[in-house]
């Protein structure tokens, strides 16, 4: 996993939490299901190692070599 994918994952999760919470406060409490489901998904991914966001990022983003790998092989 590259740092770019991790940053994208954190940004997506943070945006969904913030938007879902705000919509739950301002529009309808039913919107609080969005951050709730996201929390359950993050919790289960800690045990199973499967995260839907990483799965989608792996399928859509091209492979980017890790800089530390490049440094160790060029020496």
What's the structural blueprint in terms of helices and strands?
Elements: H1 3-26, H2 33-48, H3 52-60, H4 67-74
Give the overall pLDDT as a whole number: 85
Q: Into which percentage range does the β-strand content fall?
A: under 5%
Radius of gyration: 16 Å
Helix coverage percent of residues? over 70%
Shape: elongated
Number of helices: 4
Structural class: mainly alpha
The main pleated sheet reads as: none
Q: How far is it from the N-terminal to the C-terminal residue, by CA? A: 23 Å
Low-confidence stretches: none
Q: What are the secondary-structure elements, in order, as H or E? A: HHHH
Short description:
This protein has 75 residues and is an all-alpha fold. The protein is built from 4 helices and no strands. The protein has helices at 3-26, 33-48, 52-60, 67-74.
Overview of the structural elements:
- By secondary structure, this protein is mostly helical.
- The protein has one domain.
- The protein has four helices and no strands.
- The protein has helices at 3-26, 33-48, 52-60, 67-74.
- It is elongated.
- The two termini are 23 Å apart.
Key words describing this protein structure:
single chain; 75 residues; mainly alpha; 76% helix; elongated
